[in-house]
Amino acid sequence: MSWIDLLVIGLIVFYVVTDFNRGFIRSVASLVSFVVSLFVAGRLYRLLYDWLVEDTKVYTSIKSFIEKNFFPTQQSGESGFERLDLMRFPQGAREYLQRHIEGNGSYEVVSDVSVLITDAVLYILCFIAVFILARVAISLVVSIFDVIAKLPVLHFMNKTGGLVIGVIEGLIVNLIVINLIYTFAILFNIQSLINGINNASIAPYFYFGYLFF
Asked: Domain coordinates of the chain in residue numbers?
């Protein structure tokens, strides 16, 4: 178990305690905003991705950054495959890239892999960006229901229901946090994050980035 697993557990405990204290109705409103935000992000993140690729330099900047930092300058007689340093990637990403390389050969492998990584990173960042924007917008709307949670007759149900919602919300938050950690570990080659990911036993279950490959 690594510190990332402790982070996962800590987030779940935090949301259980928080939602127990604030009650069921406010917690449900918060959870609904999470679910709706995930749905909106799932529907719209590709639109943001397409806009960034077609109308900005974000894609080329990320791709250049990855090629510069992950693939050393090619030496005389060195193949594209030999330029790859897969040990710099988290284990899950490393295994996926190895399968991709073995299936496609070494021709233009640096360009292929850099495109693969850039797409995955930008997809995840776009998804998270849309999720956050939707979450903020929906939270502003559902805040009007806060007054209902103050009714005395709903006190016990609020507390019990809030505890259950806290567990669910903690799991959802972990999905976002763990995918952010994976993204930054890959993008910036942060060794402490990579080591934490490779040593984790719980955190990998929350990573869905491979769905974007």
From this structure: 3-72+84-212
